[in-house]
Amino acid sequence: MGKMNVHYSSKSNDWATPQDFFDGLDNEFNFTLDPCATSENAKCDNYFTIEDDGLKQSWEGETVFCNPPYGREIKLWVKKAFQESKKPNTKVVMLIPARTDTKYFHDYIYMQARVRFIKGRLKFGNGKGNAPFPSMVVIF
């Protein structure tokens, strides 16, 4: 898996997962792959960077933790997670904004995955305040 140095600003669509929040999920699921990471924020030893493009890689046989970029491309990551979860021995857990009005929510999550809505708002990365949106954990 690739190693690279990329720094994201607070104005980007990348929201670094709070470590304690991830640790709780990791204790439950034992993740093996982070498909959208940098060498600085990867949550698993096995990960894909922007150059690797996790959308083009196979996740088969992995237990995946996916906190994708929250911009327009999020729908591509949700679709990919749904599709990859259909492969043998593959489980995907996503941390994404709770946007229940979106097409991707209704096409790939609603009635197709388990959803855990997070009470309150997460504090991502080195942010001083809470996120300006509610979050959910989606389990495929």
Question: How would you explain this protein's 3D organization?
Answer:
One of its GO terms (biological process) is DNA restriction-modification system. InterPro entries: Dam_MeTrfase. It comes from Halobacillus karajensis. By secondary structure, the chain is of the alpha+beta class. 21% of the residues lie in helices and 14% in strands. It has 3 helices and 4 strands, in the order H-E-H-E-H-E-E. The protein has a 4-stranded mixed β-sheet with strand order 1-2-4-3, with helices on one face. Mean pLDDT is 89; it is low at 1-12.
Major sheet, described briefly? 4 strands, mixed
Instruction: Name the helicity range.
Output: 10-25%
Would you identify the regions where 5 or more consecutive residues have pLDDT less than 50? 1-12
CATH homologous group name: Vaccinia Virus protein VP39
As for the CATH topology, it is Rossmann fold
The whole-angstrom Rg is 14 Å
Examine the secondary-structure arrangement and name the CATH architecture: 3-Layer(aba) Sandwich
**Overall shape:** globular
Number of helices: 3
Distance between the amino and carboxyl termini: 24 Å
Strand neighbour order, sheet with most strands = 1-2-4-3
**Structural class assignment:** alpha+beta
Can you write the helix and strand succession as a string?
A: HEHEHEE
Tally the structural domains: 1
Number of strand segments = 4
Mean pLDDT: 89
Strand content: 5-15%
**The CATH class:** Alpha Beta
Protein name: Phage N-6-adenine-methyltransferase
GO molecular function, one term: DNA binding
GO biological process, one term: DNA restriction-modification system
Organism: Halobacillus karajensis
